[in-house]
Amino acid sequence: MLAAIGCGPAPDATHDPSLAPAAAMTRRLTTEGAAKTSPTTRSWLIDEHGRKVLLRGVNGGGRAKMAPFVPFDFAPSGFDTAKDAYFAHIAALGANAVRLTLSWEGLEPNEGQRDLDYWARYRAMIDAAHAHGLGVIVDLHQDVYASPFCGDGFPLWTLAAGHGLPHYDCSYLDWSLPYFDPASAVNQAFERFWTDADGIRTKFALMWKFVATELAQHPGVLGFEILNEPGAGSSDPLEFQKTRLPAFYEQLGAVIEAAAGPAVIFGGTNAGDASASHTLVAPRLAHFAFAPHYYDALAFLNIETVDPDRLRAGLLTTIALPGSPQVPILIGEYGMPNSNLAKEGYLDAMLALFDEYQLSAVHWDAHVSTQLWNHEDFTVFEPDGSERSWAQALDRPYPRAVAGADATFSYDLASSTFKLAVSGATAQVTEVYIPSRRFGAAPQVTLTSATPGARWNWLADQQLLLLAASPGASYTVSVTPQ
């Protein structure tokens, strides 16, 4: 069956206007059935319908690292309006996921006393994201431990005496340097955490029990990330990733699952860029997804170059795990400073690689504010909420949910051609995001299948192409602008 279809008025046998997106009771993901089907394919996240899910989106970070710990500015009594506008802007980028910063400092500024106003704001943000078609990764975020070190995340009461006052005035490179000094105050603080000095780690687990219990039934939560970019303390960083870190993920993952039920636990390493190798051993969790960060060293140095071969080599180093366990992969952070004029080309190259290797990925970052954390400016939005000039790079076609045993896809930027091949179709519907800013309101679709029963529907208001086929069938689809 070969059908060249213009999604306009011309009728076609494969057009099925009754084809609709799958009803979603929850956005919660698992990794069941996510094993790789060949050495060249990646494992996928799995939704409630058994479909393979690809996540593309942004981090709600930046401004969220500082009080009042949300990723946008808002006027008194203006929080609700600001949050709805914020998530509407993210959805307009074609995103289906937000990695949303959760601050322990914001949640528990004083030991044993939770700030329920902050918690209500965080929950309201998940509600708003869900209403705009976005799932949330609950990201317990920290950088260099706490605000007295130009960082964020841990409450000040977890620090030893004499720690100094909070400040956010370091350069976007200098703030991270204490990570690499085992004797730094930052790593001393982490060592206190790892050894449970003053019960800090025990209290951290209690905090996570509260969060997971509160969000156990929330339909907008995709999964949970235990701790962003943890420091190694006094341990050798490579040995830390082999032993202490996976054991920590296993312990806290068990706490979260006991409170929230089966859920994806996202976890990365303490290595931050393409030049850093790592030795993380995958923790023994039922639903673990590897979530490394990929930052290119040259991009951070503001060198205006895009070398796809070098980026590929760095990416493959970043996503490798010892023993090649079959776990889904999310690039939890990637990007470059807004001052780098090569940014749009860089993002085009990175997203093409993510497509090739079937990787979920969320860009750092998306905040709407006049304030910068440590002069760090990666955000896709201007302070008024409008998009930066390079934002269109993020708005690309991709399969959001694939009903099949395997799938490969690509997007050719020069011709604006998207291709998807699905094998072993199931009875569910495949959903593909096709952005109108690249393809127009009625893209041209060519659907090919050797088995009768393949059909499509186009939902222009949702920029969504729906595909279905007889169980077990294979098909390919090509999409070009109208």
SSE layout and pairing:
Blueprint: E1 2-6, E2 45-46, E3 52-53, E4 56-60, H1 79-91, E5 97-102, H2 104-107, H3 116-131, E6 135-140, H4 185-194, H5 200-214, E7 221-225, H6 237-242, H7 244-260, E8 264-267, E9 288-290, E10 293-294, H8 297-300, H9 308-319, E11 330-331, E12 333-334, H10 343-356, E13 360-363, E14 398-402, E15 406-412, E16 417-423, E17 430-433, H11 436-439, E18 444-449, E19 455-459, E20 464-468, E21 475-480
Parallel strand pairs: 4-5, 4-13, 5-6, 6-7, 7-8, 8-9, 10-12, 11-13
Antiparallel strand pairs: 1-18, 2-3, 3-14, 14-17, 15-16, 16-21, 17-20, 18-21, 19-20
Structural account:
It is a single chain. The protein has 482 residues and is α/β, with parallel strands linked by helices. The chain folds into two domains: 89 residues, no CATH class; 352 residues, TIM Barrel, CATH 3.20.20.80. Helices cover 24% and strands 19% of the residues. The protein is built from eleven helices and 21 strands. Strands 9-8-7-6-5-4-13-11 form an eight-stranded parallel β-sheet. Strands 2-3-14-17-20-19 form a six-stranded antiparallel β-sheet, with no helix packed on it. The protein has a five-stranded antiparallel β-sheet with strand order 1-18-21-16-15. Strand 19 and strand 20 form a beta hairpin. The longest helix is centred in the middle third of the chain and has 17 residues. The protein is globular and about 70 Å long.
